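Troubleshooting entry. The earlier prediction with adenosine-5'-triphosphate gave an output that would not parse, so I re-checked the input for stray whitespace and re-submitted. Clean input:
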Amino acid sequence: MLRSVKGLKDILPQQAMQWQHLEAVARTMATHYGFSEIRIPIFEFTELYARSIGGTTDIVEKEMYTFLDRDGSSLTLRPEGTAGVVRAVLEHKLLDSPTSRKLFYLGPMFRHERPQAGRYRQFHQFGVEALGTDDPLIDVEVITLLWEFFLALGLKDLTLHINSIGTPVDRENYILKLKEFLAPLFPNLCGNCQRRYLTNPLRVLDCKVPICQESTVGAPHLIDDLSETSTIHFQAVLDGLNDLKIPYIINHRLVRGLDYYSRTTFEITSPHLGAQSTIGAGGRYDGLFQALQGPATPAIGFAVGLERVTLLLSEDRTSKPAPLFFVAGFGPRGKPRAFRLLHELRQSKIRADTDHKGNTLKALLRSADKLSAEYSIILGDDEADSSTALLRNMHTKAQEIVKLEEITQRIHSIL
Ligand code: ATP
Ligand code: MG
């Protein structure tokens, strides 16, 4: 038997209800906050990601699904959404249009990581990007949307972590201090971090290996090295969150895993997920447009890992389908009339189904139960001859005779 590829997951019909609910809440809330949907391709030229995410990040170093196209060009399955959105914005000059500066997306991302609970090789993100302003209040809006999205889904015990990692210039001095701090700890760091120490020391703060996390507990704080402008910006973001009563903690080690971030960074974690506790994360990326040869454009966004969110969703929060009406037709005249009725019900937006294999009333009602139908519509030869049907409540077993020409009306009055 053929199996799916390691690290990939099927979303089976039962779970799909959860996903529909998640996606519906995401779309509605993003729209309410003024974001418009953008749908971009799931692969791009490799160069886009190499240039935006950063050559010394985990993603670019070892997690991308990169392959050669038939003409020899290097393509990569998208590991995240922001780079593609920025590429599309530049390509289609969306910055010129005031209604296209707040964008959201939903869809699959691909990273070759070690599969484990909450970490897959194809996973799904809901993300937003607010482009063209560095007003601290837009940071507050984006963070608030993320927070309220999780509240709307009924998630509990969440923590919002926030930090400012300043501009690349702010970080120069800090990186020297950090290296000084890390130097004596170097032998304890994981192999990855020993390499990062040389290539991208900030990454060490973000390492998930426990020994590295312990080693960096006393590391100097990046916010102590921010320029005055960055400090004022960060304080204004915190003031805005206080004003809206969004609770947060300042997390000095939050540097995020992508190189394009600057100033505000944030993450929301849940204590109910074990090691992969971050369900949504984001930050400012004021330098990304220029890195992609666009005009200087401050921007901020977040991405939510939807698989991790589904692990936290309680059953009663997921959307349920409309009540099912099971059409039970039998007999040489009943069955064809019932099949037409099934079509009519569906045309009038009633959720209806049947079982083509069932030929007796008993078998049909058993199928109705198995499909969890709320009602059955019984239509044998006698009913067909008198243009009626029996409407049977599958829970109470109460039945009423309804004229076929009135049946959709009757059903709508029940719904
Ligand atoms: P992590 O620290 O968990 O690896 P990250 O910094 O790589 O996350 P981002 O690139 O910011 O994550 O992605 C945003 C969110 O997407 C994460 O917070 C997480 O919820 C989710 N996510 C990231 N990688 C995966 C994955 N391999 N499988 C499932 N969800 C993921
Ligand atoms: Mg990661």
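This one parsed fine. The mean pLDDT is 94.
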